[in-house]
Amino acid sequence: MSQTTGLPLCWHIEKRAPLKSDPLLESRRVYLTKSADDNEVVSEFLQLVKYVSGSYDTPERFQALDEAIAKHEICRNTTEGTVRRLFYLALPPSVYPPVCKMIKITA
């Protein structure tokens, strides 16, 4: 993790929630910024958040998510097989089964 921010040096977030990207992300800045010195770090963090739309039970949408994540992994010059993906499910528990099934099928 970064000594100054506590954030990993190389990481990426793909969100699936139907958010209006920039305005909503920028509105979260106030919760992420503790001092004026944090502005650059927060800006860099917000650049890592990407939006991939789709339903919870459509393989094509999860394939698009997989491709978006893979594109990021490639641009980071990672070696195949060395990346470990972590999926954080900020979802209603009722959709965990179809989401986990789609992740297993496509990831």
Automatic annotation (TrEMBL):
EC numbers: 1.1.1.49
Gene Ontology terms describing biological process: glucose metabolic process; pentose-phosphate shunt, oxidative branch
Functional pathway: Carbohydrate degradation; pentose phosphate pathway; D-ribulose 5-phosphate from D-glucose 6-phosphate (oxidative stage): step 1/3
This protein's record includes keyword Membrane: no
Single GO molecular function: NADP binding
Record InterPro entries: G6P_DH, G6P_DH_NAD-bd, NAD(P)-bd_dom_sf
Signal sequence range: none
Source taxon at top rank: Eukaryota
Keyword Oxidoreductase: yes
GO cellular component terms, semicolon-separated: cytosol
Glucose-6-phosphate dehydrogenase NAD-binding domain location: 29-104
Protein keywords: Carbohydrate metabolism, Glucose metabolism, NADP, Oxidoreductase
Entry protein name: glucose-6-phosphate dehydrogenase (NADP(+))
Species this protein is from: Lithospermum erythrorhizon (Purple gromwell)
Lineage: Eukaryota, Viridiplantae, Streptophyta, Embryophyta, Tracheophyta
